[in-house]
């Protein structure tokens, strides 16, 4: 429960002998006391006076009590957390499309691809692992821990939305069934996520993919964000609102306090160190938005946390006539 060497002062000395046979009066005469651990270990100490011995016994007993109470409260906490987590995971299973594996339609899939926001069966999960984490981050619904931001992502996407992006056009190819061979599954999964053969088309627009991503993020249009990151390169994910502004999509997602898009952007390679034209990292925007979830997620990935006061960002629609700058299209990106 506690260590005698760290808890006791040097003027108390361990008697170092078995005191079991000593009477209480003898121990009192010697100002001794004994600590017995739950495992039966004993430690014997001797103080220099009754007062000192009684003071030590009182301090140690209160420490034992505090320690026991702390253990009990942390047990309750984790139990509550796991109950909440179990309920959240159950609700993820009930999202549209999630009763079947996103890739082979096996019933009741128990594995998740985090960045895809989809549930998959154990056979398909093995193939997803082989794709690499840049394409699919696999996690077990039952065996792994589920921090809040991951639950948020899985709750927000789901198999139906994910497949509306990743499997929009199967080009006449037949999806493997639950009994498909590993080779059949692998061919399908690699065509779907690695070669991106079935991905839905990009919207018809003159805007670059990066500018579309900025707009979709500012508008918190999750499906479009999923579609754009499915098509996009790291460079496109890191486009900014232009010179004089400097915000990337992560700044915009953090400003919205949108932990789902924040997390997705991080997985798809957005630069966490990027600063806007005023030197602000995404963390400053998350703090301004009072989004503890975004703050925690950004901190987890090392986003810098200097607290510069956020400056008003110029209204780009007045200043910038460049059609490729989409930030002005959304008033929601303006600060203060
Ligand atoms: Zn499957």
CATH architecture of the largest domain: Alpha Horseshoe
Shape: flat
Number of strands: 6
CATH superfamily of the largest domain: Ankyrin repeat-containing domain
Low-confidence stretches: 1-23, 74-80, 314-336
- Mean of the pLDDT scores? 82
> Can you tell me the number of structural domains?
3
CATH topology of the largest domain: Serine Threonine Protein Phosphatase 5, Tetratricopeptide repeat
- Sheet having the most strands: 3 strands, antiparallel
Query: Helical stretch count?
Result: 15
Order of helices and strands: HEHEEHEEHEHHHHHHHHHHH
- Quick one: CATH class of the largest domain? Mainly Alpha
Helix content: 40-55%
Radius of gyration: 29 Å
Enumerate the distinct ligands.
zinc ion
- Cα-to-Cα separation, first versus last residue: 53 Å
* Strands ordered across the widest β-sheet: 1-3-2
Pairing-aware structural class of the strands and helices? mainly alpha
Biased composition (Low complexity): 315-336
Pfam families: Ank_2, ArfGap
Biased composition (Polar residues): 1-14
Protein name: ArfGAP with GTPase domain, ankyrin repeat and PH domain 1
Quick synopsis:
With 336 residues, the protein is mainly alpha-helical.
Describe this structure in words.
The chain is mostly helical. Helices cover 46% and strands 6% of the residues. The protein is flat. The structure holds zinc ion (ZN). Residues 1-27, 314-336 are annotated as: Disordered.
């Amino acid at each position: 429960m506690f260590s005698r060497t760290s808890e006791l002062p040097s003027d108390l000395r361990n008697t170092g002998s078995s005191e079991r046979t000593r009477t209480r009066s003898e121990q009192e005469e010697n100002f001794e006391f004994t600590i017995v651990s739950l495992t039966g270990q004993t430690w014997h100490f001797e103080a220099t006076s009754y007062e000192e011995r009684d003071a030590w016994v009182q301090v140690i007993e209160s420490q034992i009590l505090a320690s026991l109470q702390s253990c009990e409260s942390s047990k309750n906490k984790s139990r509550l957390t796991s109950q909440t987590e179990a309920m959240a995971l159950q609700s993820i299973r009930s999202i549209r499309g999630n009763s079947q594996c996103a890739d082979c339609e096996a019933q009741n899939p128990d594995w998740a691809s985090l960045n895809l926001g989809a549930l998959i069966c154990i056979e398909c999960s093995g193939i997803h692992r082989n794709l690499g984490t840049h394409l699919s981050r696999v996690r077990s619904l039952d065996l792994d821990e589920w921090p809040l931001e991951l639950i948020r992502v899985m709750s927000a996407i789901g198999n139906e939305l994910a497949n509306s992006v990743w499997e929009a056009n199967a080009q006449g190819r037949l999806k493997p069934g639950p009994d498909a061979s590993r080779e059949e599954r692998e061919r399908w999964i690699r065509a779907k996520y690695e070669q991106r053969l079935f991905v839905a088309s990009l919207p018809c627009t003159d805007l670059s993919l990066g500018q579309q991503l900025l707009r979709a993020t500012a508008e918190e249009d999750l499906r479009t964000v999923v579609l754009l990151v499915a098509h996009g390169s790291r460079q496109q994910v890191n486009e900014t609102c232009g010179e004089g502004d400097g915000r990337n999509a992560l700044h915009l997602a953090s400003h919205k306090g949108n932990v789902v898009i924040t997390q997705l952007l991080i997985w798809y390679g957005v630069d966490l160190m990027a600063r806007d034209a005023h030197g602000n990292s995404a963390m400053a925007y998350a703090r301004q938005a009072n989004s503890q979830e975004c703050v925690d997620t950004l901190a987890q990935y090392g986003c810098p946390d200097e607290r510069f006061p956020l400056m008003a960002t110029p209204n780009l629609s007045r200043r910038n006539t460049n059609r490729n700058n989409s930030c002005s299209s959304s008033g929601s990106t303006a600060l203060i």
